[in-house]
């Protein structure tokens, strides 16, 4: 289980989310409150949108709390849209290639959760990928594979549906090999324009997800747990929800994978 | 505050102390019970005596729990005498040079604790070192400096006295610049023959220190906290004590820095 | 293109091969003479046999020339059989998982060379692996995949044939997808008892391979290039040869992949 | 001996200097032409000025050629003024704290060269530093100490004189302990407004230094060796010169340490 935070809104320094709040992401790397594992010291990463269509990416294997580069970069870099992640491995080795976010073209993706029986599902799932997408696989985590499956299932055309199709693919593969489908999935992803998030699980324990504006004039944060440690200031996102943030004023929270049909409908806040 | 474990006795694999016990040093790196900081993820190190007079040294900046090399090395390397350490920084940056143990010739040293006001005491203390000893300084921690001061004060000739002289030097320097002397010092060190340890503080909170034999036929461990998580199986070393382990059957625990005089006297267990 | 050195014989310190010779493996990491790339700074690794059936493994992403741990470990660890490697990436990222040697159970393997069109051949080759072998894949290099294919093709039962079958599999896959087969392969591997090596290429440029005894009483080295920089002291292994070292006195060099049949025959030196 | 490049002018992506030119700094890390050591693989760093008074700083111990983070960061970050460095150690260990540039407040500094007999001069030189400056020392290189001595000698008030005073201090200390003064010093430094550089040596072998505009509309580069490998496009800076770049059109090259007096005089190009 990991911790992450995403931001969309007026440009601000990465450190305003990553380092400065009292329960900032760096603080959570050392002492998370709502995570299965208190310590998230198995690497970190940040993807931010700025001067290019594709995001910048900085990932390393040190704990976030001890990386001097992260401190300096997050003090210098401003962005209107970024994803930041601290990792607690549920199996994969600690390497840069296994650190989130993962990036492909303009897309970035990060994840908190896991696929049960992943070691047995892995090959069947990988076989669903086209060569061009498979070639992008650099690590060995379930999280990276979820992202690649989303690309396979049309992330570019319809983000929510690609994620639903990915979940269904995992379920189908589990059924095929005869293991119970077990998925916990709280993820954020972006194409550089909108910010998407999901909170989902096949059981009752979907990893926590909150949203709030950092301040009256700042943009919107979507996070694993409140950056100020004050749950009262944050809106919990219900389990089995899909979140679309178009801008600070337009956030839509819809059911995800509850019924057969999935009908996204963007609403004003 | 860090965690450490030292061993002297019949040869055993490093992993029997570092990785295998239920509350092994690697387990403590993730979840220490008696430390000020639960997580000890700012690097680790092990010094072991074997084929040479000087010890082997393996240190790295990853958390001990995620280092595959440490797992493999501790499964392969046998030693009759070794020191292992997981670090929680109280200030210094995370670098290999700041990881314990520190080594000089045949001596190895590791430490849990800190010198108060170290930033103000540092230069005065460094000025006490001969050029040849100062030249060995590679990092920037108070721990390394304690070790160098011990070398300066005759570690080779009389280990306990060199440590007492080091403590007195730190106190004198604090007095000289007008800050209260504040030292917490639970350390282990070795010349490849004997194993020495100390538990000391200028206040009532000397960091914990325990000793026990791992099994009827195994040697003696001196540790920050019990390797099996069972305090009942371990003998706590009282505060302000100096420990000398000559072999599994001969361990001496004497007062340290309590009165003016310091009279080591080796006793049978 | 990488550099490597393997040893079998009376126990000696790893440093006697890795660090001490004038053109040691560490020296070659900085300045190789016969390699396509002079610098081999993309990580290193060593696998050695000792107290366990499976080898110890130490790999890291720094250049070998600057790793203090490697210096200390190779001064302390003695072995009668070990493989050491310095890497110059031909494509894969620099990560520990991509560093040689690769290890599986009692087997270790390291490689200098490459598979042409690997990005296009990769999936087809991976599909030949059983689940249990595929699950061991942690990196993304052609070298690791060669090793896994050898395991697939019966490395345990008949080492040379498993390698020949692997080469044939690669050729067949190239033919299947319509690219010319291009393989350069100078590798060493061991089960902890014998040391095997191969020098092979589909063109005239099989990477160099030499063998020699380090000294009258020492064991046998098989290397990418002479450890003393003196080609005259070393016996070049001809291209398309398979080498079996049973002990210092028994080394067999046989044709590899030259005709259809492959008839290993062990000979005294 | 290291390689470095500095830029001042209209904002451009760091990669336009670090990664894109045919003989870019990353290319030089692998294969320098005019350096004593062809490989500069002992870490790298970049300091850039942007949103804050103090520069951003990214340093790591990998060779520049294999660091994915450096590639991404230099594609995203734009700056009007930056310093970038690839390191070839002349003694100090490979650690982030020993990588250039060094930063203090608004100042950044990087260096190619060395102080002869540094191990014997080090303590005497350190003793010249005020406590507040000494406290900034994190590594163990001669380069960092030169920077701290410049801060000590009034870098804020008069950059060239502070460097001259530093050179004189080193010479005086060498004389005091009775070793010949030997200094090679090709350095760049900045306060976020101007870019300064020096080419100096006590012998006839001052490390090379060139300057050129990257393109008609781009700013000015000051470099260890030409970024396009074409010496004809670059102006060599004579030995014993001090360079001040106020903007693209105003560069002054003056004698440094040639006579007793040092009279800076800014000229138009």
Automatic annotation (TrEMBL), chains A, B, C, D:
Keywords: Glutamine amidotransferase
The Glutamine amidotransferase type-2 domain, residue ranges: 2-269
Gene3D superfamilies named among the record's database cross-references: Glutamine Phosphoribosylpyrophosphate, subunit 1, domain 1 (3.60.20.10)
SUPFAM superfamilies, A to Z: N-terminal nucleophile aminohydrolases (Ntn hydrolases) (SSF56235)
InterPro entries associated with the record: EgtC-like, Gamma-glu_amide_hydrolase, GATase_2_dom, Ntn_hydrolases_N
Domain of life: Bacteria
Pfam families: GATase_4
Protein name from the UniProt record: Glutamine amidotransferase
Origin organism lineage: Bacteria, Pseudomonadati, Pseudomonadota, Alphaproteobacteria, Hyphomicrobiales
